[in-house]
Amino acid sequence: xxxxxxxxxxxxxxxxxxxxxxxxxxxxxxxxxxxxxxxxxxxxxxxxxxxxxxxxxxxxxxxxxxxxxxxxxxxxxxxxxxxxxxxxxxxxxxxxxxxxxxxxxxxxxxxxxxxxxxxxxxxxxxxxxxxxxxxxxxxxxxxxxxxxxxxxxxxxxxxxxxxxxxxxxxxxxxxxxxxxxxxxxxxxxxxxxxxxxxxxxxxxxxxxxxxxxxxxxxxxxxxxxxxxxxxxxxxxxxxxxxxxxxxxxxxxxxxxxxxxxxxxxxxxxxxxxxxxxxxxxxxxxxxxxxxxxxxxxxxxx
Length: 301
Prior knowledge:
By secondary structure, this protein is an alpha/beta fold.
């Protein structure tokens, strides 16, 4: 997704208000954008706190800055600057984190972002975008260009099979029909879930939806999804994020407040480091039970 993000942003690099900042990351990926943006491509160095404050200053003067790093470095270390300099003033700084969730695998917990959007959504005025498929990225960039608020774009990998054509972009999309529970996948997890679920008979498989924008508002949940939840009375949420502050907690709360909570709620999420070992992204997903195979096994019980 990072390459597509770079290609898309090049289209806007000649705008006078455009500024792109990187925390000394993006080698062998962002060079085309650097060439297109010229002096408005700034390597801020390994100084994320300063980068965010500079981005806030630029935004206060009418610029539209993007600040880029790998996911944990763009939100964790400069959190105070994001809170005080960007969000309190509702400035249109766009934070871009590459490799959300367990994407950086064996590099360990310091390089994982399994609490990112839960933390950022506690801040005033923040929006979060989590593309599920490559085709989501250009649409999101367009939305972010015109969004006059702080935002966080969490990039990952498109994990769907090549024969699957993603439906036109929407924050909520139904990607697979079924007569079982409603399963909502957040971001790229939709790919492996779809790959496993589509082989099931319709009367056995879940109705699969993809969620790509946060926070969740009750009035923006599609009527068809509300009806699916009501009919199945079992909602499953899968996200590569810890339970606390995640989309699962957010959705459960909203449905409960509005009297539309299902009888059964299942939440598959990041559970940290159960074995104490570091491994690949797939290793950590499996250890957390965050796989389509685990979901299917639980459904058969």
